[in-house]
Amino acid sequence: MTLVDSSQQSPRPPSFYGFRRDQLADHLVTHGMPTYRAQQLFAWVYQKRQRNPGGMTDLPLSFRGRIEEFCDLSLPPAAALLATSDGSTHKFVLELAGGASVECVSMRTERRLTLCVSSQIGCALRCAFCATGLMGLKRNLGAGEIVGQVVAMGDFHGWKDERFNIVFMGMGEPLANYDAVMDSIRILRDERGLNLGARRITVSTSGLVPQILKLADEGLQLGLAVSLHATTDDLRDRLVPVNRRWPLRELMAAAREYGERTGRRVTLEYTLLAGVNDRPEDADRLADMARSLPSKINLIPYNPVPGLHWKRPDPGAVESFARRLLPRAPAVTVRRTLGGEIWAACGQLGGLGA
Questions:
Q1: How far is the C-alpha of 352 from the C-alpha of 354, rounded, in Å?
Q2: Which residues, 6 or more positions from 60, have their beta carbon under 8 angstroms from its beta carbon?
Q3: Whether the predicted pLDDT of 6 surpasses 80
Q4: How far apart are CA 56 and CA 45, in angstroms?
Q5: Are strands 89-95 and 101-108 parallel, antiparallel or unpaired?
Q6: Residue 51: inside a domain
């Protein structure tokens, strides 16, 4: 019997989901295939939901038989899948190469399905109230690992929702993994792929000012959400440490430029922490900040994280804060907590399987 040295085995082909269509065409050429096969593959995988080359019936058998030699069509398997009791929210723990895993979340309301995707395993920014920050940064995700989350969740829901939203609000700081995030967005937007409109994609950031301006240069009407959480530099330095590098004055100027150049209102995300940032004077400053740029405010009552001492304000305090904003701020919403019972709500990812 001949033993095979695993170190001599052929490496696994690259993930299909990490290729833009032009990149896939170039990749196929290196394997002796015509470039137009990339367009056909995109349509089969993303539009016809066919993951098995044998089912791509209008492609030549000779091509179908070789597809898996040069690209991997498999999706990351789910190591765990948790659902809320009402079935509105699901948390997926997906296994990645090298033994790592990442969490992503689907949330269904009466109006839409929203897929919350991760861009990193862990996070280096260490926001004071976020579970993901407690992990530190393990590594960036590749574009294929980001797109794979979307396709895996779409497959789970049977692609019943023609119009769904994607938010880069999962694990990690998306703008710290800029190139992979933008490649994933280009793949998701491809007209031969999922054909997702830019206005249905929102990128969240804790305040990386140069990357906000770079995102504005992309010429896309992507939504931008700024994780604000404080109205003074002193407090934000403690809650969102990246503020020490790019303080509020610089952050708000970048957000204003983004909103004016894209024609989109920037969402100011504001997590309410009892006795910390929920005073009347905080609301007054937040209203003034919101009025200084095209914006809307999204209030997020704090979602508890084991081991952290922060508290969620009671419902009356949340209502009082929102009511104080309403006469002066352009638009105010209070986020409905989805997934708290399965540790899938905002700021809670990273506690299971990662």
A1: 6
A2: none
A3: no
A4: 9
A5: antiparallel
A6: no
Which of 71, 116, 123, 346 is an active site residue? Answer: 346
| Gap between the Cα atoms of 283 and 300, Å rounded | 13
Q: What is the pLDDT of residues 271-312, one digit of tens each?
A: 999 999 999 999 999 999 999 999 999 999 998 888 888 999
Is 55 a member of any domain?
Answer: no
d(C-alpha 271, C-alpha 68), whole Å = 46
What is the C-alpha to C-alpha distance for residues 289 and 259, in angstroms, rounded to an integer? 14
258 domain residue, yes or no: yes
Residues 287, 290, 295, 299: is their CA dihedral positive or negative?
negative
Question: Could you say which of 103, 145, 173, 269 is catalytic?
Answer: 103
Please say if 103 is a catalytic residue: yes
Q: Which amino acid is at 239?
A: L
Instruction: Give the CATH number of the domain where residue 104 resides.
Output: 3.20.20.70
> Which of 6-20, 149-163, 213-227 is modeled with the greatest confidence?
213-227
Of residues 78 and 98, the one with the higher pLDDT is: 78
Domain count, the chain: 1
Please tell me which residue, 83 or 131, carries the higher pLDDT value: 83
Q: Which residues contact 55 (CB under 8 A, 6 or more apart)?
A: none
Residue 205: alpha-carbon gap to chain centroid: 10
Q: Give residue 184's domain range.
A: 78-342
* pTM (predicted TM-score): 0.92
Q: Is residue 9 part of a domain?
A: no
Average pLDDT, the chain: 91
